[in-house]
From TrEMBL, chains A, B:
Single GO BP term: glycerophospholipid biosynthetic process
GO cellular component terms given for this protein: mitochondrion
Listed InterPro entries: CDP-alcohol_PTase-I, HAD-like_sf, HAD_sf
SUPFAM superfamilies registered for this protein in UniProt: HAD-like (SSF56784)
Family matches, as Pfam families: Hydrolase_like
PANTHER family on file: CAT EYE SYNDROME CRITICAL REGION PROTEIN 5, CDP-DIACYLGLYCEROL--GLYCEROL-3-PHOSPHATE 3-PHOSPHATIDYLTRANSFERASE-RELATED
Protein name per Swiss-Prot or TrEMBL: HAD family hydrolase
Annotated organism of origin: Phaeomonas parva
Superkingdom: Eukaryota
Length: 261, 261
């Protein structure tokens, strides 16, 4: 249980991430920008834009790392400081400890879609680059490939789509909402999304685990015609069309075989 | 020749990097922070700290990318925007072009040493993470491993230590300095440095290419006792000791066999 000991928390925006960590019960959560404000020498590229520590308690030994949102503009200190803590739970005291603390990521999407015409890198880009640099740093410290693999094994935890627990959490929330409103118990679930690798793959993985899910892929974001649909049951132009399609074809009929859009 | 067409330039500090690019003859150099100020939607994590364009000329199609210094705090936009330009010389017009523009890095050191007790990630960390994300992005666009390798082949250029041309440039500068001062022509060269993988490996690579070089490794930075010395001829505690050692053992005697410190 990570809740009593201090944990290092990463993600932007700073205030929201601090709030989420507290709401999750992590009373001794130190945001990496607060940790950096306490030890500015850890980032030689740091500039005056660093925000001072919100919580000046001097917790220095971390029990784990939680990445609750994309590091965004904090990408660089997030790579450097989180690597420091993965090498050693107290980087001020030692460069390399025999064991790595566990790290948890909320999401592994490589890409997402925002205002710009082309997909942008998301938290999955941070997960992949952190892993690469951490492994290169361990190799530079003389660890073998086997030692590196053993060190990270079971201590590198990625949540979020397209993992089955994420889909089951969605089921649970929908069940609770339906019960609260006095609606019928949902018997089938539809994942409406624009990202084949997370949204559609999530529905497909849930189905593989025996859950009643189908994927409805919309052309409004990451997905472009010609891309792999990751087993979407249908491809539509908009969320309105997705709802229409579900009302027409889908409700409570169980799994629908994939069809061409 | 990249000098007439516009090139995208990355690195911190912004003003120095702009100055270096101009001094190198790149009149149409656009710093990536200027490019980002022109197209803020390219970075959804961008905040108000972005600096406005120094040079408002609307060059949009780049002939190449120069990374002249560590991106540091600009690590995140440097990963996103340079990937955009490697995918397409004009990302505003197209997401993916058939060819990649060439990219040049000034340095490939994974680690360097500053005020903090443990080594910090340097430009080599940027080179490695950019390559990883660019390849993942190409794979997400449907390119095969072979297509990705062909696309980057010969267009991914890394300068700096431990490459032999870097050591030969140092020789040339020392020859010019000696001639200007009326000193004797240098017959042997010593690389004094703290980083085995760049400094000592550079001297070793030069020796492998028939150049008269030895490496003198100092314990003042990246190197820690027990690390691989990368063929250093000697390990000493300080730069003063390095000079003493060279005066005592080294001058103009040609290659010195490696000895234990």
């Amino acid at each position: 249980d990570l809740k009593p000991p201090p944990v290092l928390v990463g993600g932007e925006p700073l205030d929201k991430v601090r709030h989420v960590a507290k709401a999750m019960g992590f009373e001794k959560a130190v945001h990496l920008m607060d940790y950096l404000a306490r030890h500015p020498e850890m980032d030689p590229f740091g500039t005056d834009k660093r925000k001072g520590p919100q919580d000046p308690k001097d917790w220095e030994t971390f029990a784990g790392v939680l990445v609750v949102a994309d590091p965004g503009d904090q990408f660089w200190p997030a790579l450097q400081l989180v690597t420091d803590v993965l090498l050693s739970p107290n980087p001020q005291a030692a460069e390399l400890a025999p064991e790595q603390v566990p790290i948890y990521f909320s999401n592994n999407d490589l890409l997402w879609k925002e205002a710009f015409a082309h997909s942008r890198f998301g938290q999955g880009a941070y997960v992949a680059t952190l892993r690469l640099l951490y492994e290169k740093r361990l190799a530079a410290l003389g660890l073998s490939e086997e030692e590196i693999a053993a060190r990270t094994s079971g201590r590198w935890n990625i949540y979020g789509k397209p993992e089955v627990p994420q889909q089951m959490l969605a089921e649970k929330r929908l069940m609770i909402t339906a019960a609260a409103k006095g609606d019928a118990v949902p018997a089938h679930f539809y994942m409406v999304g624009d990202n084949p690798r997370s949204d559609m793959q999530g529905a497909f993985n849930a189905r593989g685990a025996g859950r009643p899910w189908d994927g409805v892929l919309v052309r409004t974001g990451v997905y472009q015609d010609g891309d792999d649909t990751a087993h979407a049951s249908v491809v539509v132009d908009s969320v309105a069309e997705a709802v229409e399609w579900i009302l027409e074809h889908g409700i409570n009929e169980g799994h629908i075989p994939a069809e061409k859009s």
